[in-house]
Amino acid sequence: xxxxxxxxxxxxxxxxxxxxxxxxxxxxxxxxxxxxxxxxxxxxxxxxxxxxxxxxxxxxxxxxxxxxxxxxxxxxxxxxxxxxxxxxxxxxxxxxxxxx
Length: 100
Known about the structure:
Layout: E1 13-17, H1 18-23, E2 29-32, E3 39-42, E4 52-56, H2 57-63, H3 81-86
Parallel strand pairs: 1-3
Antiparallel strand pairs: 1-4, 2-3
């Protein structure tokens, strides 16, 4: 049995910020889209098109394995704000970067 918790396969594209994907910024907001069941893993504030990156779901989990804790969120919803306080997402990191 697979330990993959998401309703999308590992190679499915996910939306994130470039600073999360390439710099190691933390994932602070998660959205599960109702129309296509896609996932968005974002920082704070409104995303701007110049800072958007598409990565596979497996890469998001590699950057921050704690995102698996919100995989059960139904499409069209996002985890309640206090869910990220109870189970905070660890900062995404680049190789060699220590987690705080």
